[in-house]
What does this fold into?
Amino acid sequence: MNAAAKINARDYLEIYQNPEAHRVSLKHLDLFIGDQAFQAGMNSILNTTLQIPPFKPMEEWVFENIELANNKSTRPGPMRLTVYQREVALAINDPNVRQIVVAKGVQTGYSKFIKALYAYTVSYLALNCAIVNSTKPDAERYYKDEIAPMYKEVMALKRLIRKPLKGDVHDTGYEQRFANGVNTYIRGAYTDDAFRSYTTWLNIGDEVDADGWQPRANSIGSKIEMFRDRGTDFYDSKLLIGGTMGLTHRSIINAQFLLGDQRRLHVDCPHCGTQQELRWGQKKDANGKRPEYGFRWEINEGGFVVPGSTHYQCDSEEKCRITQEEKYAVH
Ligand SMILES: [Zn+2]
It folds into this structure.
């Protein structure tokens, strides 16, 4: 007979109160062995499992959590931030920085950076985030092409996808609610409701010099101000705006860039170590000569870039050639 299974709490109380009647001695109850096992167990995890893991800056988290697929990247494998992206990532993790303005060139991986930042903010920082593109169709395209695939590919995000129960709010391309309590919003700046009724720690504006971001005749204040206000519930909220700079006189990016410390990207050449500003270097002088530094590539007869010919020419006596593969080694 399995006595243990039949003894309930009331029986224990009875035994405890009348040990004589039940011929048991509570004096023999010795917890020493159990206590020893417990202490040993605690000691073994004291310096591992029970420690709060060190904070992961974005660069490290992205490397560990985002895997670039073969068909989507020239450099498959764990995602590594390039030299431009790394600087923005450092500013994201710097509590003293509240606004970051990126005046970018074309094809610098800004969109890829934003989606990685979105994944980091939602799953690691567990904070609300909004991404505002220029127009509603832009926002839809960005959601479908960049954000939605991550819900399958990035495990850290995938495991936060809720299975809505009956009566729960369903996710849309514009709003998502994650299992860790994070909400995200994707909007087009052109529409009136783009900057209404949500509260977000990180506010990301993309292609901010595109038409959708220009103030409209009947609107109150600038869209950047309205967007910044989304973060007022957080003492350390962040606004990241970026895009290719448009015409200077109406450029929102330029105006915002001038408000900041106007950092320019300086890099050390991996060959000779010369520190220099990374510049496009295409502008010819009065004699039709291009500067000695800058991005260089060869074009074939068909008008296409010769594979492997793209490189950066170092601004030093040596004129070192920094190749595409070396760009991750540039700091
Ligand atoms: Zn060099």
